[in-house]
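Q: I'm building a small set of examples for a reading group on sequence design. Run inverse folding on the following structure and report the sequence directly after it, with nothing in between.
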């Protein structure tokens, strides 16, 4: 009987990154089939311009996700800052369950909050301003109304701007704000958080009102390796994936 739960994030799949795609497809067809549930906590894709985009490797990824779910593994997905335009059509075609920005999970008896992580980076005011605008229905509808070829071209400019943004800010500004972490956990009455986004994998221990709390930061995937946080009734560990 399957009882293991897996967590991944920040794969940033794209046609320019075939080795990461290869690691991911191998993971979906082998290791992931052993799990009860798989949670993808944002930025599965480097950029998502709409559910009508079937350019490589999107079509193959959809099929592998569908096959995994057919094998008996449930798949849950949160939108990240790169693939927030991913919508219901993608989920209907694959069987993936789309989660809200904040998702509470009973992880073997412990209430655990799942997030992509970008909402915790409140010191990055420029990004947070853009996030509010880009998550409105009007903004999304306007961008998705453009022809696919134009959205694909625009996505390259977006990725370039994102790279410049990271270079122009101090590293601590792009990381999570600990006060925001604490307040977010308190608002959900939870003391464990799992997220990605920052590309700074670690396990942080701290306290909230003198109660022990922990924050798991998932690793981003690279052409050399993928990373999975694996949880079972016996505890947790991190597995490294290769081609």
């Amino acid at each position: 009987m399957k009882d293991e739960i897996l967590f991944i994030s920040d794969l940033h799949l794209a046609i320019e990154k075939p080795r990461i795609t290869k690691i991911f497809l191998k993971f979906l067809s082998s290791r992931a089939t052993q799990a009860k549930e798989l949670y993808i906590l944002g930025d599965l894709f480097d950029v998502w311009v709409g559910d009508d985009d079937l350019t490589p490797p999107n079509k193959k990824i959809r099929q592998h996700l569908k096959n995994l779910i057919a094998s008996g593994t449930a798949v849950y997905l949160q939108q990240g800052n790169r693939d927030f335009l991913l919508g219901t059509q993608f989920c209907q075609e694959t069987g993936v369950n789309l989660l809200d920005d904040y998702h509470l999970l009973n992880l073997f008896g412990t209430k655990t909050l799942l997030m992509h992580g970008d909402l915790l980076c409140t010191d990055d005011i420029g990004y947070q301003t853009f996030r509010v605008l880009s998550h409105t229905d009007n903004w999304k509808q306007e961008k998705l109304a453009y022809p696919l070829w134009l959205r694909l071209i625009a996505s390259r400019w977006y990725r370039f701007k994102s790279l410049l943004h990271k270079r122009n800010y101090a590293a601590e500004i792009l990381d999570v704000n600990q006060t925001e972490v604490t307040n977010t956990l308190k608002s959900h009455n939870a003391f464990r958080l799992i997220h990605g986004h920052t590309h700074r994998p670690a396990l942080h221990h701290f306290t909230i009102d003198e109660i022990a709390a922990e924050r798991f930061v998932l690793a981003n995937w690279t052409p050399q390796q993928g990373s999975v946080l694996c949880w079972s009734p016996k505890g947790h560990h991190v597995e490294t994936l290769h081609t």
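The chain has one domain: 5-241.
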